Amino acid sequence: MKLKKELGLFDVFAVSTGAMFSSGFFLLPGLASQYTGPSVILAYLVAGVLILPAMFSIAEISTALPRSGGAYFFLDRSLGPMMGTIGGIGTYAALLLKTAFALVGIGAYASIFFDIPIKETAVVFAVVFTLLNILGAKKTSGIQKVFVIVLLLVLTAFIVDGVYHIFWAEQSAVTFQKRELVPFFTGGAEGFIFTIGFVFVSYLGLTQIASVAEEIKNPDRNIPLGMALSLLVTALIYGLGVFIMVAVIPNDALAIDLAPAATAVQQLFTWLPPRTGLYIIVLAALFAFASTGNAGMLSTSRFPLAMGRDKLFSEKFTSISRFGTPVPAILLTAGLIVLFIVVLSEEGIVKLASTFQLFIFVAINFSVIVFRNSKIASYDPGFNSPLYPWMQIFGILTSLMLISFMGWVPISFTIFIILLAYLWYVFFVRSKVKREGAIFHWFALLGKHQHDDLEGEFLTILREKGMRQDDPFNQTIVRAKIHEVDQQKKFKDIVKLVADASSEEINTDKKLIQQEFFKSNPFDAALMIPEVMLLNAQIPNIDHPVLHIVLSKNGTTQTIEINNKKHKNTIKVFFFLINDAEQTKQQLRMLTGIWDIAERDYFVQDILALENKGKIIEYLLHSKQYITFKLTKDSAAAEFINKKLIDVKLPPDVLVVFIERGIHSFAPHGKTVLHENDILTIIGETSSINNLYDRYVLK
Question: Name one GO biological process term (predicted).
Fold first, then answer.
């Protein structure tokens, strides 16, 4: 069972942003300043820049392979199950710790005003967020949006009031002098670089959105845009917020302050009743830790689901409830978070999480290089990382540099997790998993082994993503040539029939077209449907895709090879798609679009029973997106006659793709003059097509 696609752009922004604001703003600035002084402001901004390569890489892979599991799934499909196991278990552990830490933060800030136990409060909130996640990602993200909106409003007020008091207030409780920024680098270059790595954890929530990519609507747009907006807003608030803390709190005091935002706000909001500002910032902190805990529960719980699907964990974790959520995976995640809350102390968690995540970022940046060089045609990202491969190389080198400054304890922890995950792979996974990663396709260019099943899996993902807005799928269906074959023909004769019919249309030698159709294709087996065959040809320099459909009521027997075994199949419906040789990925998307049509119930029976081309095209397109009507003087469409197409008033979201004029059919352009008795074929959005139907067909 698949997860529901319920998350939109603002959901992506809320999950990503909510996962970043908590310890990064309300706790870490004080701890980080002890290593570098006032330059902690710059450290936050540099960390935001250094995460860009990882963000771009994750956005690219997520739009190509929108699947639950995030880093695990990426590493498994690029570098193979061993690295997938290491990355999955390690990232899962790091996110569990980060989420547990955020929930403890709720108890810690709440205890400022209420006499409540910190850890018990954290456990209660863990249970609450578990229930929300079980009820559905949309409900979870709905709560998340409330958290983020309240948090951003409070932090914006904090920044505006702080900047006003620092630079413009005449009678201010704030004393800000240049000496607060001197010396700027108290720990030298080494302390500054260490601080960048230390606060790097503040931005890790940015990449958590990849874990729920499977549940995001229109991932090609919403993932990269949501992540970019989240990073921009977060970096701006971090930079200005930490600047205010440095400005209003003396350096020595800031270095030992575990609640610098609360300390700073006591010198701000002087226009409000006493302690009101403190109440507000504590409320914001509670919302921040709650949003991080909630987003962490949502994204982290998808790791057992993805790893269970691939037999790295028990398959019980793949179960999806009636709410469309992975309940066993959520319960496992919640149980481990509660265990960490009860057993572990908070000290050192930040450095441990940051170090391992830096290691994962090295691997993810390398994964993009692997995917690009694998030449897998169905790796079709909706977003391409800029400045490839230099962006990825920069990300790898800077991550390794930061790791080297983090100290031997975090590095030892990372090595321990890698070793533990490797042993799990050797003793529990390797015997069950036979696939390999995309890196073997790269090796195939050197004459070595590749894993063909990976291409079939990517093709399935490509199919689920569907068409892009600029894909000429509907126009191609409308222009399709229909051939009805009454007598039983051999397969080679049908191919010759299509090649002859299409050679003049695309101005290409028919023998070349035949050769292309006869070529074996690694996707042919994946695209097989009973009694239906999809064939494709790639021809250089053609203007638009061409589709021919052959209907054979008596059927044609054809031998198909699947998994090195030959099978005889009687084919009654053939689809022949011809595409430009430079548009391989578009061709695959269109093939999977045809595949979706051919998998309808009773498809072969229905299409063979249709009487003419118009009804066939209408059936293929679903009538809601398609309309045909004739221009006659006694109809409402008479207003079109003798007008240029560009001058005809039509809804902006429809397109005239085909005109039948006597025995000729052609695709029009803006200057085409419409004649009486022309038959127009129009496609577009359902609502506009319905309006045209009411106006020009019913009347």
Answer: potassium ion transport
| Whole-angstrom Cα Rg for the chain | 30
Do 186 and 258 lie in one domain? The reply is yes
Count how many Cα atoms sit within 13 Å of the Cα of residue 107 in the half-sphere of its side chain: 18
pTM: 0.70
Encode pLDDT of 274-300 as tens digits: 778 888 888 888 777 777 777 677 777
Whether residue 639 lies inside any domain: the answer is yes
| Together in a domain, 13 and 88 | yes
Contact indicator for 223, 213 with CB cutoff of 8 Å:
yes
Q: Which two tokens stand for residue 365?
A: 């940046």
d(CA 587, CA 595): 12
Backbone torsion region of residue 291, taken as left when φ is above 0, otherwise alpha when ψ lies between -120 and 50, otherwise beta: alpha
334 neighbors 297 (Cβ within 8 angstroms)? yes
Secondary structure, 3-state, 11-57? HHHHHHHHCCCCHHHHCHHHHHHHHHHHHHHHHHHHHHHHCHHHHHH
Strands 565-580 and 654-661: unpaired
For tokens 């595949």, the residue is 595
Q: Is residue 182 helix, strand or coil? A: coil
Q: Which of 21, 22, 272, 287 is nearest to 150 (CA)?
A: 287
- Going by the DSSP 8-state scheme, the letter that residue 524 receives in this structure is T
- Residue 632's alpha-carbon distances to 525, 629, 639, 698, in angstroms, are 48, 9, 9, 14
pLDDT digits (tens, 9 = 90+) for 19-37: 777 777 887 788 888 888 8
Distances (CA, A) of 223 to 8, 109, 287, 300, 537: 9, 32, 24, 17, 33
Segment 365-392, tens digit of pLDDT: 988 888 888 777 778 888 899 999 999 9
By CB neighbour count within 10 A (0-12 exposed, 13-18 middle, 19+ buried), where does 517 fall?
buried
Residue 276 lies in a domain: yes
Same domain, 630 and 602: no
Sheet strands side by side (includes 481-485): 481-485, 546-562, 565-580, 532-539
Neighbours of 639 (CB within 10 A): 13
Task: Please indicate, yes or no, whether residues 639 and 689 belong to a single structural domain of this protein.
Answer: yes
Report the domain count for the chain: 3
Antiparallel, parallel or unpaired: β 654-661 and 664-666: antiparallel
390, burial (CB in 10 Å: exposed 0-12, middle 13-18, buried 19+):
exposed
Same domain? For 223 and 348 the reply is yes
Contact partners, residue 324, CB within 8 Å, separation at least 6: 3, 4, 6, 136, 137
Considering the domain architecture, whether residues 30 and 157 belong to the same structural domain is answered as yes
Q: How far apart are CA 311 and CA 320, in angstroms?
A: 16
pLDDT in tens, 213-268: 777 878 888 888 988 998 999 999 999 999 998 888 888 888 877 678 888 888 88
Widest CA span in the chain:
96
Both 653 and 589 in one domain: the answer is no
Q: Is the pLDDT of residue 50 over 80?
A: yes
